[in-house]
Structure formats: C-alpha cells, structure tokens
Amino acid sequence: MVKREAIFIIVCSIFFIFLLSFLSPLIVSQGYDAITIQEEKVINDVIAKELNIPAEFELKIRNNQLSADNFEIYSLLDVIITPLGTFVIEPSTVKTIKVTVMPRTKQEGRFGITYYIRGENAGPAQAKQDSLVIEVSLFSDIVGISIPKTIDRERTELTFKISNPENMDFGKGTVVVESDFFDFEKNVDLGPGVSQEIKPDLKDLQNLDAGDYTIKFKFNLDDHKGIELIAERDVKLIEVIKITESDFKRTGLLSYTRNIIKKNDGNVEQYVRLEISQFILERIFSRYNVEPDDSYYSGLMHVAVWQRELKTGETLEIKATIDYTIPVLILIALIILYVGIQIAKRPRIILRKKVVKVRTKGGEFALKIILIVKNIGSIAEDVIIVDRLPMSAKIHRRFSVIKPDKIEGNRLIWKFEKLMPGEEHILSYVIYSKVVPIGKIHIPRAVSHYTDVKGKRKISYSTKLYVVHEPVIGKD
C-alpha cells in the first residue's frame, strides 16, 4: 500500500512539473513579465570616435518564470552588443550582466540604443525592450588638458595637467608637442580618472607676436598602435606695447653722422614715425641710408620723414650723413662723365642674345633665338652679323622681318650697309631637333664685324648662353 502511494506521488510530481513548464509561457502571455530589469548601472557611456573602446553598462536582470531559461541580449540597430550568445538565469533569480555597446558607424552625438532581452522559453512575444544612452565624441573632446588660456611673455615656467575624466581606459602611451611655446615628449597614463602634471621648459617668448596660438598634442597609445590622436588647445600671448629709441652722433674730419634707431621691443605690430630736420644747405650735402618716405620745408629747414609698421623685434635705423667732401666727388664725377662721353663717341655694336623655348605639335625640342643688335656709338659701316646653330639643331624656315642674307651650313649671316647711332634691329629664328637633348645646352655666341669712322675693322661678341632642358617623364 505504501509503495503504491509513493509511486502515485512521484507520478503526480512529474505531471505537475510538466504542467508548470507547459503553462508558464501561457501565464506570461496573459500579462505577466517573464523578466524584469531591476537596475541599469552606467560604467562608461562615452565612446571615442577614433578608437574601438565600447561603452559599458551593468544590468541586473530577474527571471520571473517558474523555470530556468536561456536569455540573449540583442539590438536591431547597427551596433555590436555583448554578451554574444545566451546566458542562463535560474527561476526567481537576479543575475548581474556586463553589457558593452559599440556602433559600427560612429558619428558624434548622443544616442539612445534600443535593445531587447529574450528568453528561449518565454518566446519573442515576451522580449523585454529597453534602451541605453551613449555619447560619441572626439578623443580631443574627451581628454582633459588644463592649460592656461593666456600666457605672459615674461613667463619662464608653466604647469598644466593631462587627465582622463571618464571611466574608460585609454591605457598608457606618449604625448608629443611641438609649438611656439614649448616642445616635449612625455609618457602618459590615461587610465580611468588618472591625472598627470607636466612642467615643460618654456622657450624664449620675447620675439613672438601677441595673439592666439594653437598648441597641438599628439597622443600615441600603446594599446592602439598606428593611430595618432590629436588634441588642440588655444593659448593667447598677452600684448606688450613697447617702442625704444636711441639717438647718437659721430663727428669726423669733414663729415657729421646722426644715427637714430627705433625698435619694437613689444609683441604687437606698431606704427612709428621718424623725422630729421636740417638746414637747406646741409640737405644739399646730406645722404641717408634709407630714402625718406616723405619730406617738407619749414622755413629754412628741410624735414625728412620715415614711416614704418614695425613687427615684433624689427627696427628702423636711419643714418643721416653730411659729408663736405661731396663737392670733390662731384668734380671727379664730371671728369669721369666727360671721359665717358668721349669713349661713347667711338662706334660700338652691342649684341644681346636671348633664347625662348617653343612648343611644337610633334613634340620636338625647339628654341626661338632672338638677337638684338644696337649701335650705341657713332656711325658703323659694313656691318656683318654671324650666328651659328647649336650641334644637331636644324633651322626652321620662319624668320623675323629681317631674314638672313645668307645661310651657310650651320651659319646664319645678316649684312647691313650701315648702322646709325642708336639704331637697333631684332633678328630672330627658330631651331629644332628631333633628338631631345638632356641637361645643359651650349648656345654659340653671335659675332659682329663692322668698320668705324676711322676705317678700322672692329669685332664684338654676344654673351655666352646656356639652356638647361630636363625632359618630363610621365607615369604609365
């Protein structure tokens, strides 16, 4: 009898368990939540756009069913959410799950990520919907760099901090700075909430212009090789307005010099005006190292004026020298001028030669040769101009208005019966070569033969000329 009762109790228990497992989804479907999210804790909700460090959350999930179930967390958005796969929660039990979220495409801003928790027994109809809020920012907006907004140029030292204010681990690495204020390379620790003080050696700021400067911090993290993270901070150099002036005099045997210097010892561009007054007679024998920008007369005084916009560290230095030896120099100059005039009366033919590269349809190398012939002396007769072509060059039968009188091999010959004083002619022709030369090309000198008024035969040459040609090599 006892044995039968035991068997009956076992059978009823099995049936009851089977009935509960069968009816559990039905009970849930009648308004009873299979799961409950009891707590959502933010570990880190910020994501650096340049890095693959996900946002982290901690969820406390309760299984309200009468049996254990396999649950999974998923999202229909374009994000990677973990844990991947399923996890088991016993009936009427709360389990803490660490959840990470990483968008596949990262755009700056604050976003709500909708996710679902579904149990295998409860079915899709009982999936729990909720959302997690994340913020995607640039690394430069996340990292903390507490640097002064303004700096005085007299400052000799500076202290600032680099920190990670978020609960995310960037790890360790290096930061490199090259700026107008300081240069340095330091090892940094950017763990969660870590702050590091840095005292760089300041440069000499005396010659820097006042204004806004951008300091660029380049971070290279050990756990993110190959990614250089840039953070920029603006610093303003405070204005200093300071113009210094010095004025000293030096007297010589027959001369007198006054030296005036104005210097911008500040760091802001400044307008300066400098005036020197002299008697009119003194002005005749005066000279300046820099020509005045303006001048005016005040009675018997001549006033010279200089005006400049001086940048930081720039100077305006004016030397006014009165030299009474100038009359002697003027006399010497008159003698030289007279001799020069006498020399200029002699016949003299000047040859100037120019070369211009010419484009051709066929891609051949071509040059236009220009000869300028000018008589800067007296009448010249029986003038013959001879020019030679460079090696391997051919003449193109296109000339200027004055064509050669004769072409003999690589020689071109022009003849003029006479050239009057000041008479000038321009001769030109085009040469080409199917073989493109490389490097420096020697252009032969032109030569002129003429007869002066005394019946003597004279000769003159053009200057030496070279053309450098470097062919362009295209990419296939």
Q: Can you offer a commentary on this structure?
A:
The structure is a single chain. The chain is mainly beta and 476 residues long. It has four domains: 22-131, Immunoglobulins (Immunoglobulin-like); 140-237, Immunoglobulins (Immunoglobulin-like); 243-327, Immunoglobulin-like; 349-469, Immunoglobulin-like. It is built from four helices and 35 strands. It has helices at 2-29, 139-142, 280-284, 326-344, and strands spanning 35-44, 46-48, 55-63, 69-74, 79-82, 86-89, 93-103, 109-119, 128-137, 144-146, 150-151, 160-163, 172-178, 183-189, 195-198, 211-221, 228-237, 243-251, 255-264, 270-279, 286-288, 294-298, 301-310, 315-323, 349-358, 365-375, 380-388, 394-399, 406-408, 411-419, 424-433, 439-443, 447-451, 457-461, 465-469. It has a five-stranded mixed beta sheet with strand order 2-9-8-4-6. The longest helix is centred in the first third of the chain and has 28 residues, at 2-29. The protein is elongated. 17% of the residues are buried. The model is unreliable at 16-31 (pLDDT under 50).
Spell out the blueprint of helices and strands.
Blueprint: H1 2-29, E1 35-44, E2 46-48, E3 55-63, E4 69-74, E5 79-82, E6 86-89, E7 93-103, E8 109-119, E9 128-137, H2 139-142, E10 144-146, E11 150-151, E12 160-163, E13 172-178, E14 183-189, E15 195-198, E16 211-221, E17 228-237, E18 243-251, E19 255-264, E20 270-279, H3 280-284, E21 286-288, E22 294-298, E23 301-310, E24 315-323, H4 326-344, E25 349-358, E26 365-375, E27 380-388, E28 394-399, E29 406-408, E30 411-419, E31 424-433, E32 439-443, E33 447-451, E34 457-461, E35 465-469
Parallel strand pairs: 2-9, 11-17
Antiparallel strand pairs: 1-3, 3-7, 4-6, 4-8, 5-7, 8-9, 10-12, 12-15, 13-14, 13-16, 16-17, 18-19, 19-24, 20-23, 21-24, 22-23, 25-26, 26-31, 27-30, 27-33, 28-31, 29-30, 32-35, 33-34
